[in-house]
């Protein structure tokens, strides 16, 4: 328990609030007791006997998160006692000093992303949280396509984190800017945190989970309190040009439902479902040859490995830590490519007709689709999910299970963990979507860079659970055709 209770007289109320804390919770007692996890306490300031205490929380379980400030005067203790009370509270609230208070942040706002509310959302909901947490903000608004790339390319390396008020498009630009930085590895070591104001917001869903993935205040809390988590990124190599991809590459129906619905952005997220149904009616096979350098093909083994990593029974994640210091001694050049386009040794060609391919990392590619349920943040592997061209009814039957990743267990859904893969188009087709950006469907190859990039995370792992392994009795429902 805290050394003593503080009585806070708030102007409008006659009865003072009684504040106390344990190692894990702040207790706010008035007529009843509100318990706030210390992780959600972000700031406490006092001047003589006046106190301002800030936390991010929910009024009701189903409400989005919001900033609450308790402001008043403290009558029952002296200023120096109050000082010590605050300093212990904040020490505990910032994980015993493991999380730096008052982070120095570069904030990049895309006023043009999603429904174009990024700047307003930042000003109204996010900035007050960052200020209450005494963060230092260096704010810039993007003025054009490619601006985030330019900013990232020459970013100073001494920020504690870069905050992107955007969707996945600006994240893609930022990582590619890092790749062209004078010191790429050091640039990738600066943690990114996203305030989800785009359309799909896949990275935010993966970091914060389905419940909080679109909650901008939960995302702001992660900016203040998140710990650095290393994540794999990929090199997408096409016509000799190397592009960094942080999330996914989509082909066939999976590309059509994203890029093919770009003109329907006004719809918001439902455009992806519209694109899926339209693609299903057309039911065109994806004319590619897919080959991969596989590490694991057995879904049961992947599921077991995932569970072991989650329970930390085996050490498969690079340890989560406070933001790593930049070092002059580390190798600062971008890792070289390991595989040439002509490399054949250990490569397998998939010899079955394909409806669509998704390859990438992070469970969700959108709110309706957990494409990679067993992906791990930094195992150095890319997950390749292939929907074989079975039948319309089979693919349609899988759709309702999409948000929970249930298609993973379907026999016609092939799942491969690999170091690299390669695609050769068999006839001219439209496009491949790389993190949702358009690329022509010409021959390309993708390989992983283990733990190259860094994001802020509340958990130290992707916030999603894979669908349970089917039992003998439930297995049949995955077999419909
Ligand atoms: N000032 C601007 N005017 C026009 N376009 C911009 C501007 N700033 C950034 N952009 C472009 O906006 C694109 C989309 O941005 P962002 O990722 O924020 O949202 P989104 O694409 O709607 O979301 P998602 O990627 O999640 O679908 C980026 O490709 C970026 O280059």
From TrEMBL:
Entries under SUPFAM superfamilies matching the protein: NAD kinase/diacylglycerol kinase-like
Gene Ontology terms, MF aspect: lipid kinase activity; phosphotransferase activity, alcohol group as acceptor
Signal peptide span: none
Pfam families hit by this protein: DAGK_cat, DUF7493
Residue ranges of every copy of the DAGKc domain listed in the record: 100-240
GO cellular component: cytoplasm; membrane
Ranges of Polar residues composition bias in the record: 471-481
Gene Ontology BP, a term: sphingosine biosynthetic process
InterPro entries named among the record's database cross-references: ATP-NAD_kinase_N (IPR017438), Diacylglycerol_kinase_cat_dom (IPR001206), DUF7493 (IPR055916), Lipid_Phosphate_FormReg (IPR050187), NAD/diacylglycerol_kinase_sf (IPR016064)
Superkingdom, natural source: Eukaryota
Disordered, as annotated region: 460-481
The protein, known as: DAGKc domain-containing protein
Organism field: Favolaschia claudopus
